[in-house]
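Title: Comparing notes on inverse folding

I've been comparing how different people in this forum approach sequence design from structure. To keep things fair, I'm posting one structure and asking everyone to reply with a full sequence. Here's the target:
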């Protein structure tokens, strides 16, 4: 799957999950123990904004955990998703360096991190709000390959990833991806 198309699929799923949050679910706990639904959506939106800026060679939008979701977070997420995809498409090539604050990496790595973060957090949001959390198998397979290269299996310290969860040999690729990133599929 072409990267821009894959990103669009990933962000559409996350946008769908945000659009499905009921008014009384914003304080629900999520698979990301340090964040409730509102905090996780805020973080996800802020990361997307920063990657949009990085793809466009602009400075960071700010601390992702302080991102302003506005009066209608579903509209904000839809707009951010469109902006994010457009920034990567406008960039075109993915060989040059993307800068996000003090971090620099090849564009291919940048778009993959952007996609992985948004897609898996979309699953987190869906899980926390009782929505359909099914993910695309092909996209999960590509992201699992990237995650295994970019995220060491051990040690897992800090807030970013929990320990790898063991899944049975016949687990779906979605479950493998989620388990590798420390989630209970």
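Reply #1:
Here's my take.
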């Amino acid at each position: 799957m072409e990267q821009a198309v894959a990103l669009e699929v990933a962000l559409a799923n996350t946008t769908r999950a945000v659009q499905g949050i009921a008014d009384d679910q914003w304080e629900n706990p999520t698979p990301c123990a340090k964040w409730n639904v509102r905090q996780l959506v805020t973080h996800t939106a802020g990361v997307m904004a920063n990657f949009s800026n990085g793809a466009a060679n602009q400075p960071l939008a700010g601390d992702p955990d302080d991102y302003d979701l506005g009066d209608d977070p579903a509209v904000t997420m839809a707009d951010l998703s469109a902006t994010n995809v457009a920034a990567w498409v406008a960039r075109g090539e993915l060989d040059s360096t993307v800068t996000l604050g003090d971090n620099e990496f090849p564009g291919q790595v940048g778009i993959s991190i952007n996609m992985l973060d948004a897609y898996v957090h979309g699953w987190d949001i869906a899980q926390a709000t009782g929505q359909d959390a099914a993910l695309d198998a092909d996209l999960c397979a590509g992201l699992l390959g990237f995650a295994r290269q970019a995220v060491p299996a051990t040690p897992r310290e800090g807030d970013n990833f929990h320990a790898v969860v063991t899944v049975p040999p016949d687990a779906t690729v979605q479950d493998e991806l989620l388990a590798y990133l420390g989630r209970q599929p």
